[in-house]
Amino acid sequence: MKKNKTVLILVFVLFSLNTIAQVHDKSWRDIANKKEDVWFASLEAKQIAKNVLLYQRDIGGWPKNVQMHKPLSEDRKAELMALKPQGKGATTDNGATIQEMFFLSKMYRQTQDEQYKNSFLKGLDYLLEAQYDNGGWPQYYPLRKGYYTHITYNDDSMVNIMKLLRELKNNTNYYSIKPSKSQLKKVTLAFNKGIDCILKTQYKQNGILTAWCAQHDENTLQPAKARSYELPSLSGAESAQIVLLLMSLENPSDKVITSINSAVTWFEKVKITGDEKDKIYNGIGQVMNKRMIPQENETAIWARFMNLEDNKPFFCDRDGIKKATLDEIGTERRDGYAWYKNDPQLVLDAYPNWKLSLKKKSYKKPKDELNITVSKDGSGDYTSIQDAINNTKSFPYNRVTIFIKNGVYKEKVKVHEWNPNLSLIGESKDKTIITYNDYFNKVGLGRNSTFYTYTLLIEANNVFLKNLTIENSSGEVGQAVALSVFSDEVAVVNCKLLGNQDTLYASGKGKQYYKDCYIEGTTDFIFGSATALFENCEIYSKKDSYITAASTPKDSLFGYVFKNCRLTANKGIHKVYLGRPWRIYAQTVFINCELGKHILPIGWHNWSKPEAEKTTFYAEYKNSGEGFQPEKRAYWSYQLKKREAKKYTLQNVLGKHKKTSKKEWYEAL
């Protein structure tokens, strides 16, 4: 019996030694990432975990290129204890810190030992502290002089950090350790800042977004140099992992979508086909030489470094001089570096499904079909205003309200004829901005191109806009509409309409109400055929030109009516007309308005149409300010009498002219 027991012990010892030998033969990366979960409860794993805790600096990070599982002598343990307070060598390069935290998470999942949890959270605090204000991370923290301070995408350093933060932020259970609420807020903020940094560092080549460098200057965000053979360049490998990270975002913003689409276009443009990497080995399996050889129908590869100016691949030895071919550099660098990569193929393979999922997400059903929220950060039902409109019920019986959170929405928005009873309500007038930059020559659709340049187009009846900035940002480049309204019973309240020529196209045969708005422009910046009442608005002229260009139909009772408005202008502007007739039956009236000194004494212009002097109706009543000079007005304009002015009431201009107990549309705002 004793003999059998001795044999069993011997077998167990031999088995344990063999298992340890197998572990020690592997790399630390393999052990941290590929071990079966149950192994992390073993005595062997706990022994390795002691090393991991010992290597961690007091600041929270770990050094790189350390085989954490290798046995440590007592002298080495003492050295590591002495290094702890210094923080020296702590980094996220080559997977350091991230893989140690992953290992500790697996240990905690199996053992629930608090020391692993505390070490993990200490590592998390380290990552949060190391982040720059602009959202990037250096290669080393505490900061180490040299290129190590650059924002580091090299070897996926920053992407690895972002992946860890993403899992914690999304509470995916990938990591067994949960941050506190205060830490989680910091994690979310750090992740969002990181995405912002990624978007800001994407390199523009001749104004077109392309990809990223392996490292970017931490101050200017421009591509930066690292080691002597790692010059500023566009990187195929690191850029691919960045794009895959962006593609994993749950509700990507317009900027993220544009970034991904641009990078994919660049990957397609710079891929290399028809060549294959070839390696020459010696007798013991070591690489002796690398070269590129022609090969038909070979899968695509991408150069590690490409010129910022023209995307041409280049190669570099330790002398820091660019070479055009791999053959031109020395054996040591040629054989000891990955000059070509195929990582971008992962992006190209995933891209079609990503596009499809994006389309599906844009057509999801909101929680409340009558109260929809749009938010750039993904916290609402939609990130796009147009997606929200497209998914509303057609011809609803009840009013649908789309609440738009603060943000800059660069999109061309259309409220279709089948979307009546719709309200677009911004969170705040100055910070909820819808902007686009189409203009006449850019659209290029012939003589009617103006009407396609809108930023926001309203074709439906009973639409209400409030607390929005609607902007055509194209600049002073000719006709460029910000807001275009064709329909009936449309109210625009407390909004800013920004542009230059043709800012507001108030047209159609319907009734429109503009209240407490700011409207700016250069030439004819309020134009069209609608019956429109402007009340308590500021009308701001940016240039010596014309404010209105009405095209009122012959049979309309009213055209444009301005009541209690202020007409202001840029400094140095002093030759502005109240209006000119786009069509000869134009009607425009100013009542109780304050006219700045920029308004010309003559007031009105006939647009070189003498016949319009007999058919237009341009009039004023009790205006004030330096620009109100009734005795000098064009002889064919009018100064209304009191009884004539009385008819310009809200009810007369916008009402249905019928008796009813039901509130009119403009009374329910």
Write the layout of secondary structure elements.
Blueprint: H1 2-24, H2 28-34, H3 43-55, H4 74-83, H5 98-111, H6 114-130, E1 151-152, H7 157-169, H8 181-201, E2 204-205, E3 208-209, E4 215-216, H9 236-247, H10 254-270, E5 275-281, E6 287-294, E7 302-303, E8 315-316, E9 322-323, H11 331-335, E10 340-341, H12 344-362, E11 371-374, H13 385-390, E12 400-404, E13 407-410, E14 413-415, E15 422-426, E16 432-436, H14 440-443, E17 456-458, E18 463-466, E19 469-472, E20 483-485, E21 490-493, E22 496-498, E23 504-506, E24 511-515, E25 518-521, E26 526-528, E27 531-535, E28 538-541, E29 546-550, E30 560-563, E31 566-569, E32 577-579, E33 587-591, E34 594-595, H15 612-615, E35 617-621, E36 638-639, H16 642-645, H17 650-654
Parallel strand pairs: 11-12, 12-15, 13-16, 14-17, 15-18, 16-19, 17-20, 18-21, 19-22, 20-23, 21-24, 22-25, 23-26, 24-27, 25-28, 26-29, 27-30, 28-31, 29-32, 30-33, 31-34, 33-35, 35-36
Antiparallel strand pairs: 1-4, 2-3, 5-6, 7-10, 8-9
**Largest beta-sheet details:** 11 strands, parallel
**Mean pLDDT across all amino acids:** 90
CATH second-level architecture of the largest domain: Alpha/alpha barrel
> Order of strands side by side in the largest beta sheet?
11-12-15-18-21-24-27-30-33-35-36
- Termini gap: 96 Å
Relative strand content: 15-25%
Helix tally?
A: 17
What name does the CATH topology of the largest domain carry?
Answer: Glycosyltransferase
From the spread of the alpha carbons, the general shape counts as: elongated
The CATH class name of the largest domain reads Mainly Alpha
E-strand count: 36
What is the helical fraction, as a range of percent? 25-40%
| Content-based structural category | alpha/beta
